[in-house]
């Protein structure tokens, strides 16, 4: 059955990226209907093909981030491959890459070259530190982004060690920011006819996400520390002990705090001078935590969830992953774990992107490509290569 067209139908993306940040961007564009052509080295391809978890020796990591794409191989160190790539750029809208800055220039395929080939090309690059500055040529990984961007210093418990967020948030933020920049450049190109280079750094992406944490220091000179699950800017906004685990209560303003006090059967707290305003509750978070915890530990997570949300105060379970993947809101109503049929793996529940659209769908459109799976189709349709030419290029190691 032919999949319905998405918002980005007709947009052609050449995806040179590997591992996570770049492929995450390409995945978002592909799920929204762009034709994303994953261009891999014929000798092994994307690093994640060798990263677990594995099913039948095939990488689930690779399958998740590269679904909805079609794939070809091209050895970009080969002069003939460079020329083939330039011909592809003439017919493409977007190129994305996450090499170390300078690599594409060494290959003779940097933005300055590609914009001569196609002035309308949008060139998206995500790297550890970006394409400018003294650290631009350094290799960068997610953990470096989280560390340098300040996130690790404020994650964890008081007195504990700086802690990496449990998922590669630097990479995910980098991929999201690349997608945002590419989409903005596509909009601008409709007006001007000109392309753009979008330069995104993992470190910058983390720094940008630090929001009010950084502003506390900029405005007051106080260096924010690790404070567990508490939030610097409002309280009670924290995890609390229930009979059967942990529950989140997010009473982020006066109205919600009043609801919490009423549900707890302690309306007098609303008039307590220690807790009158947000700033007072933040300053007196320790005694307030004791009061709320003394109440929560008498009930189960489900009971607290029902009581508070029923009254209009945000609360939730701290879901373990096994609970999260079957949650009726997340897995059911929002369909965040659709199934694909991945060659070599079989039926696989992957993780959807977060965009839910009204007229069209953003969803996995096909399985991730096997290495070079679509060579004949891509080079045939795009560049008119016949079987003989393809065989010759394969023989020479170009594809």
What does this structure look like?
The chain has 399 residues and is an alpha/beta fold. The protein has two domains: 12-209 and 337-395, Crotonobetainyl-coa:carnitine coa-transferase, domain 1 (Rossmann fold, 3-Layer(aba) Sandwich), CATH 3.40.50.10540; 237-323, formyl-coa transferase, domain 3 (2-Layer Sandwich). The protein is built from 17 helices and 13 strands. Strand 9 (237-242) and strand 10 form a beta hairpin. The longest helix has 24 residues, at 169-192. The chain is elongated, with a radius of gyration of 25 Å. The two termini are 30 Å apart. The mean pLDDT is 96.
Kindly report the CATH topology of the largest domain: Rossmann fold
The mean pLDDT is 96
**How many angstroms separate the termini?**
30 Å
| Largest sheet features | 6 strands, parallel
Total number of strands: 13
The number of domains:
2
Spell the H/E element sequence: EHEEEHEHEHHEHHEHHEEHHHHEHHEEHH
Estimated radius of gyration: 25 Å
List the topology elements.
Blueprint: E1 12-15, H1 21-31, E2 35-40, E3 54-55, E4 58-59, H2 60-66, E5 70-73, H3 79-90, E6 94-97, H4 103-106, H5 111-117, E7 122-127, H6 142-148, H7 169-192, E8 196-201, H8 202-209, H9 211-220, E9 237-242, E10 245-250, H10 254-263, H11 278-283, H12 285-296, H13 301-311, E11 315-317, H14 321-324, H15 328-333, E12 339-342, E13 346-349, H16 375-383, H17 387-395
Parallel strand pairs: 1-2, 1-6, 2-5, 6-7, 7-8
Antiparallel strand pairs: 3-4, 9-10, 10-11, 12-13
Helix pairs in contact: 1-7, 6-8, 7-8
